[in-house]
């Protein structure tokens, strides 16, 4: 007989966190909900039957079926009165998870799939739960296992190609990523335009249309945000912060900071120093 089991991952992080999982051999008419889950969840029905409700639609499910829960979306789970389901499940959260969830086609509107469609997902879910029972297992491996599972979700349930981004939005995304990856070097808007192989006038228009600000303003804002964090959370010398944010010298940085934030780096640090 299958026993109830659950695990919790002690290595919590805000980006890619496989927080918990387990096995639930439910009793007849056992119910969860209606309620919203706080994380993404995948459930696999190993045996028995039950009804899963999402987006006001009932799904009558049995062995081999799987379902997906989206955080903040109310669901209801009701075990069958005569043959209650045995459910294996995992829960995961994080800022990176939120972004990756946009790249596979499962949601509260389309939450149900089965082993015939996605046997690798079933196998990986079972592997995660088996790994959690190993006394010497390193919790760091949960993140790697979650990435592999999400990779298979992306492959097996790709987002509809008709929903691809417009070419202008693709260029803007590439440009903002380039800035975020290189803001700590003295790159300029001209460097961004060269990287994208477009002229600066076109780059300016793309940013104004898609971001609502110029590329120079976006780059400056990103640098200022990074500087604010370092000023408030560390005692790193201001000249080092200046270079770390892509400015060649402290005076250039201080002038830009004063113009953008409305106070000098020294004054900002005094007012916002973490205790």
TrEMBL record:
<dbReference type="GO" id="GO:0003700">
    <property type="term" value="F:DNA-binding transcription factor activity"/>
</dbReference>
<protein>
    <submittedName>
        <fullName>Helix-turn-helix domain-containing protein</fullName>
    </submittedName>
</protein>
<dbReference type="InterPro" id="IPR050204">
    <property type="entry name" value="AraC_XylS_family_regulators"/>
</dbReference>
<keyword id="KW-0805">Transcription regulation</keyword>
<dbReference type="InterPro" id="IPR018062">
    <property type="entry name" value="HTH_AraC-typ_CS"/>
</dbReference>
<keyword id="KW-0963">Cytoplasm</keyword>
<dbReference type="InterPro" id="IPR003313">
    <property type="entry name" value="AraC-bd"/>
</dbReference>
<keyword id="KW-0238">DNA-binding</keyword>
<dbReference type="InterPro" id="IPR037923">
    <property type="entry name" value="HTH-like"/>
</dbReference>
<dbReference type="InterPro" id="IPR018060">
    <property type="entry name" value="HTH_AraC"/>
</dbReference>
<dbReference type="GO" id="GO:0043565">
    <property type="term" value="F:sequence-specific DNA binding"/>
</dbReference>
<dbReference type="InterPro" id="IPR009057">
    <property type="entry name" value="Homeodomain-like_sf"/>
</dbReference>
<dbReference type="InterPro" id="IPR020449">
    <property type="entry name" value="Tscrpt_reg_AraC-type_HTH"/>
</dbReference>
<dbReference type="Pfam" id="PF12833">
    <property type="entry name" value="HTH_18"/>
</dbReference>
<dbReference type="Pfam" id="PF02311">
    <property type="entry name" value="AraC_binding"/>
</dbReference>
<keyword id="KW-0804">Transcription</keyword>
<keyword id="KW-0010">Activator</keyword>
């Amino acid at each position: 007989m299958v026993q109830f089991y659950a695990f919790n991952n002690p290595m919590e992080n805000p980006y890619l966190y496989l927080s918990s999982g387990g096995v639930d051999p439910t009793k007849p008419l056992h119910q969860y909900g209606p309620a919203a889950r706080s994380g993404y969840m995948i459930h696999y029905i190993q045996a028995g039957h039950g009804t899963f409700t999402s987006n006001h639609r009932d799904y009558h499910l049995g062995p081999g079926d799987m379902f997906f829960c989206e955080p903040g979306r109310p669901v209801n789970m009701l075990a069958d009165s005569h043959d209650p389901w045995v459910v294996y499940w995992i829960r995961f959260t994080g800022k990176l998870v939120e972004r990756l969830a946009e790249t596979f086609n499962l949601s509260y509107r389309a939450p149900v799939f089965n082993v015939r469609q996605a046997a690798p997902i079933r196998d990986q879910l079972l592997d995660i739960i088996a790994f959690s029972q190993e006394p010497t297992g390193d919790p760091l491996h949960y993140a790697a296992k979650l990435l592999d599972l999400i990779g298979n979700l992306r492959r097996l349930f790709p987002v509809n190609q008709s929903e691809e981004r417009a070419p202008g939005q693709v260029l803007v995304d590439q440009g903002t990523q380039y800035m975020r990856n290189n803001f700590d070097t003295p790159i300029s808007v001209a460097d961004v335009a060269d990287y994208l192989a477009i002229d600066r006038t076109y780059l300016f228009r793309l940013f104004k249309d898609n971001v609502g600000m110029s590329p120079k303003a976006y780059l400056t804002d990103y640098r200022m945000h990074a500087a604010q964090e370092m000023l408030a959370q560390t005692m790193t010398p201001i000249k080092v912060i200046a270079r770390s944010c892509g400015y060649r010298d402290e005076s250039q940085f201080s002038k830009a900071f004063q113009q953008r934030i409305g106070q000098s780096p020294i004054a900002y640090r005094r007012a916002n120093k973490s205790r």
